[in-house]
Design goal:
- Helices cover about 30% and strands about 20% of the residues.
- The protein is of the alpha+beta class.
- The chain has two domains: about 110 residues, MutM-like, N-terminal (N-terminal domain of MutM-like DNA repair proteins), CATH 3.20.190.10; about 120 residues, Helicase, Ruva Protein, domain 3 (Orthogonal Bundle).
- The strands form three sheets. Strands 1-6-7-5 form a four-stranded antiparallel beta sheet. A four-stranded antiparallel beta sheet has the order 2-3-4-8, with helices on one face.
- The longest helix has 25 residues.
Length: about 260
């Protein structure tokens, strides 16, 4: 599943490609994966220019004139594809055709990806929002004191945008064991964790852009330092361990401190 750094790069590239263009045709291929009927989308969006593309957690918000917003959630296997005039990609969910005959298709072979018109903005803070700060972490760790730190950081009802792979990277960078109890983590370490969250996510966005400047789908993960099946040791020499924790594959090392 694409996580915050992936979607940050997708957003920039899609806005560069389609920003300011007028949408001339919208076609729904999987009606049960779109929140409103095609007639509604045509009425609300066709003939409107795409003003901007924003990222909210693990969704991309396409904002059109008239403050009409189309939100895309890729889920596990959703992908964006570019086309010219006619889309030939299979497993389509929705297609957008713009005035210069360039188009964007959302596909998903599992049909889990979904699209919503004018969704409410979630109240849970995004990992890059100003509301997500050290104080928010401290308060949350006290509130959910018995919850494992990895389970809490991956919970989109606590903070939006971070997924399994990057939680592992963040916890390794902050030297916190994934099984640590949130309420047992010292305030000093929480500050270090907050810094690690920002550092890991920003660095990953830069690395993805460097490796594939035009990427709009898929995941580049081979640069990750511990959540990487090809590695046996971390950059600092720790043996990488791999376990199934809470139905998620988790990578960590003994360099990380267990707070319990």
């Amino acid at each position: 599943m694409p996580e915050l750094p992936d979607l940050q790069v997708f957003r920039k590239n899609l806005e560069k490609k389609f920003g300011g263009k007028k949408l001339i045709k919208v076609t729904i291929a999987s009606a049960n994966k779109v929140s409103v009927p095609q007639t509604t989308l045509k009425e609300k969006l066709e003939g409107k220019k795409l003003k901007s593309i924003n990222r909210e957690g693990k969704e991309l918000f396409f904002v059109f004139e008239g403050e009409q917003t189309l939100a895309f959630h890729l889920m596990l296997n959703g992908e964006f594809h570019l086309f010219h005039e006619t889309n030939n990609y299979k497993n389509r969910i929705i297609e957008l055709l713009f005035e210069d005959k360039t188009g964007l298709a959302l596909t998903d072979w599992q049909q889990y990806a979904n699209v919503k018109l004018n969704p409410e903005k979630p109240k849970v803070p995004d990992a890059f929002s100003k509301e997500f700060n050290k104080e928010y972490l401290e308060h949350g760790f006290k509130r959910y004191k018995s919850k494992r730190i990895k389970d809490l950081l991956i919970d989109q009802k606590f903070v939006r945008g971070i997924g399994n792979a990057y939680v592992d990277e963040i916890l390794w960078d902050a030297k916190i064991h994934p099984l640590s109890k949130s309420g047992k983590i010292p305030d000093k370490v929480i500050k270090e964790l907050y810094n690690s969250i920002n550092k890991v996510l920003v660095d990953a966005e830069e690395e993805i852009t460097k490796r594939d400047p035009d990427i709009i789908r898929g995941e580049i993960r081979d640069f990750l330092k511990v959540h990487n099946s090809k590695l046996t040791h971390s950059p600092t020499g720790g043996i990488i361990k791999k376990e199934n924790l809470g139905n998620r594959i988790t990578y960590y090392t003994d360099e990380q401190v267990l707070y319990e």
